[in-house]
# Entry
Amino acid sequence: MTPEYVTRLGKAWFDAMVEATPEKELFSLPKFEHRLIRERQGNEAMILMRQLRRRFGTIPEWVNEKVAQADLSSLEVWSLRFVDAQSLDAVFTDKG
# Structure
């Protein structure tokens, strides 16, 4: 058994357990909640970056860094701003 096999097997088992466990129970477990939130952040960031590249072309490094370090709340705000934004600045500039 290789370490890679054990890792894949562990991930497959974990994914199966998450799939079979009601969401309410998962979120009552702090480690699972943290993992699910981090996974969602990663997915949101990936989708936002894909949309930004599609509309604006090459993305500057400051945007990559900002998105990579963002929390879920910021990613959701930027995803909504993206819909009407005419520039990257319009997506990321706070209108306060």
